[in-house]
Fold this protein.
Amino acid sequence: MSKSNTTSRIRVAVSTVLFVFFLFLTYFATVTIIASHESLYSYTPNIAISEGSRSFTLDRYLEFENIEKDFDVIFMGSSVSMFSFNTDIFTKNGIKSYNLASNGQLPLNIYHTANRYLDEKIADTVIIDAYWQPLAVQDRDSTEAATDFFSNTTPSWDSLDLALDVNNLVAYNTFFATLGGELIDPLGASKQKIISYREYVGSGFFKTNEINEPGKKFDLVGPLLYEPDQKQFEYLEKLIKKFQNLGVEVILLNPPLTDEFFSEDRDFDAVNEELSELVNKYKLRYIDFNQLRHAKNLNLNTLDHYKDSVHLNYTGSGIFSQYVIDTLELAN
Amino acid sequence: MLFNSIEFLIFFPIVVLIYFVLPHKFRWVLLLLASYVFYASWRVKYLLLIIASTLVNYFLAKKIASERKKKKKLAYLLISIAATLGPLLVFKYADFFNESIGDLAELIDWNYTASSLNLLLPIGISFYTFQTLSYVIDVYQKKVKPEKHLGYFALYVAYFPQLVAGPIERPSNLLPQLRAEQLVDWPRIKSGLSLMLWGLFLKIVVADQAASVVNEVYGDVESYSGFSLVFATFLFTFQILGDFAGYSSIAIGAARVMGVDLSKNFDTPYLSKSISEFWSRWHITLSTWFRDYIYIPLGGSRAATWLVLINIMITFSVSGLWHGAAWTFIVWGLLHGFYIVFANISLGARKKLKQASPLAEGSMIDSIWRALVVFVLVMFSWVFFRAESLADAAYILSNLHVGLWGQLVSIDGWQAIAEMTNTQPVQIFAAVFGIVVLVLASLVERATDFYEEFSRLPVYVRWPAYYALIIIIVLFGSSNSADFIYFQF
């Protein structure tokens, strides 16, 4: 090999390394600048920052980090769980609980949240959302809850691990943007947005003051055919193993949805089948409140107890939470 | 395997690295294997179609070349054409023809039951079929000699950068380059990578962001009217360019990295000043294919005027059918044929009109005006191309004006447009941003040999430009990047 050839190759190698290095620096500087201006990130489709989100994620995670960790029960899962488990009712029944559910929190997100906050036994029971939507293939994957997590928690290796597992541009960009943002202006309770129609109650639960007008019709959400999302089922299994290894009881729970939701001919069979395999394999308690509610007179009606076709409102969450306590005999 | 996928991001550098490390005599094996892996990653069994087509045409082309009797030569050619077009007709058109006969039967009250084959269309079949046809026809016409080496011929049919969506190459251009020993050439590699980067921008920023709005509106046209329909059609006009020109750029760039120059496929088509010029700048390798293998054999421009016009209409209707087995595509093709026929027959009248017009021919205002007219005509034709049925196309065309003015004056920001199209403001912003960059780049490209000029610029200009493009792709590219539209053809 001639000397000039070798020199040329070294030059190419060095300039490639420099190119990549400066590219990353430029990228990091750009996303950091974007992260610090809402007017910029609200027009950047692949950065989804929700610092101080409407679901009080910032306040809730901060509170959870500082609270004494000795719970009877912790709730995790999507917004259906977030709106369903009224921790006030649990407290009144002498049960120490915390609602760690968040918007779009799928098993993958629950797994990473658990890695951050539940790596040792801090609760006797964890109740995980087994609503069909998070377990089915859907357009909206784990990105929503992941970006919510990045925006409202201090960046760590867990966050990077979560970004790698979600594995899309939005997750990576939001991770690096919030990392840069955190270096310049760290997160703090003061950043929680004030939401006029919502009020933080405590222990991870917030109250919604939205009132439905008489005769209001809700949009029906979700597909007609629910196909199991294998990735989410894998994470659900990992979660169950993790908690069982810690000696924490896992209960899978499907909160009650409106009658209107079932007015369409929906097919949950495939998801139910996979779910029942898991339940049998790990000998779990699984309760589908959509089946129980009519048999056990759980009186929930759409306009008085729901904020839309799948989420309970404050009144509904109170009734349902008491019903969960009685059904699962948690107060004993 | 998609160019805009993580798999390709890993596959391509590995292939390039091994390619340059291997001795020249083994490189065709690597490229052929890589091409088959590239294709088989979609559906392994459909690879058999490519292999079968390769073998049949390899041997028939040799027969054509060695046969002295004209009739036998022609017979071999016809067998080859039938064997090559057969799978295309079965997989792509059988159901369409069957359904059309069924519809016709219903009209004339004829008892005909149309049963569908429901076959999955092999990806890229229209492209490699045409490329293979050009080889046997060129051998028949003695424009090229038959390739003796089966491996190189197989590579000509299946060369992965352009296998599934072109550019449709001619044997005289591609085969000698595949045979030639390619050395590591850094300027070429850099230029190829830059082209690939630009192609990715066109695909995932321009095309895919526009697609999010277009799919919403065109997926349920009856929920929209006026501005929403006009805006979605406008976005589709750029989506289709971004999608296909993006694919071509990545294909040309990938081949260039490995030392092969593929044919240019797009050349700022939306700045054309006539429909004929548009077709000399849009999907150039397909247009020239139709010109050389259909239009000219039909008689081309040398026949009587009425025959020329019929030839144009036939060529464009076949072009429409090539794009898709649906009446919407045929109408789209016919519409373009009509544009050109009309331009031909109205030439005299238009000249007189021009002489009376205050606009000086060739002036900037004249050029802008003509480009604008061509753009609007092309945009109008895309309605048929994108609509899911002729009924949808008719609905769109009859509702483009409904409430248009009122909607236009009520637009006070991205939010307003997003509400009209049932999308998010950020999607509208990203789509428009991508289009603005594309239009500016097209203007620069029209004025100068952009890539050549750009590669001569100093590093402190080039690197920030690359960074900007990469960061724009990462921040503005659609995170749900879809298949390339032309894969379905």
The two ends of chain A are 81 Å apart (CA to CA). The beta strands of chain A are 71-76, 97-99, 123-129, 198-202, 205-208, 249-254, 285-288.
